[in-house]
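Any chance you'd type out a single protein's sequence alongside its tokenized fold?
>
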Amino acid sequence: MFRTIAFIGCGSIGSALARLSVEAGLDVVVSNSRGPHTLGRVVTELGGHACAATCTEAAVAGDLVVVTIPYGAYRTLPVDILAGRIVVDTMNYYPERDERVPELDVGEVTSSELLQRHLVDAHVVKAVNNVDYIRLTSAARPPGAPDRSALPIAGDDPDAKSTVAEYLSRIGYDAVDIGALVESWRSEPGTPIYLDAYLPRAPRGMDEERARRWFRTAPNVPVPAARVRELVADAVRAGARRGTFTGLPPGFVATIEGTEFTVL
């Protein structure tokens, strides 16, 4: 059903997913806004199942296309090339980092719905947006493991969601279908399933350096599918963090502060 996973964006989440994909026996094509010549070290670390390309070349090559760029750059994604393809949307909207979008600020629409409107003929599935890159790697487990975690997914196309669920299973996670893209706000920043569920409670009173160290070394907390369903059901849309990094795990903000990206 799928063999090659393409990554548009190769930051912390993209690199972690690429590594998990290679470990699962999949081929990966990685890309970023600076060009394939800047990804030599990443490709070397990933090994023979990986290669670097331009963002456009990656979009053409992938059976699944994973988008891991700052949300403010989503309009640069190639509409024609991604038509008919399954696009895994890992992006989150942070107005302190991204261009402000009034419809998102007031909750009229979800960030993934806006992406789907842009990629009108693609099949967008929201996934892997609610866990940080360190826990994403450390929490991966084989099927049937007692401490295997689950991740929520949302999308308008049932077949696309099934494919993404299979991909998540290959890389170490169960998938919980939380509905159409209109429901994807339930895993957006500020909701119970976003980041904190997969982390232990942070110690109080840490300075910036200790916070960064804690974030890098904190163990993962297993979140099984039943718990994901509970947390998603408990989400309150007014509770989403609109325009602030306040309340995010200590040390996390530094991993999402980059803003410059363009595909075209």
Strands lie at 4-8, 27-31, 50-52, 64-67, 86-89, 123-126, 150-155, 174-177.
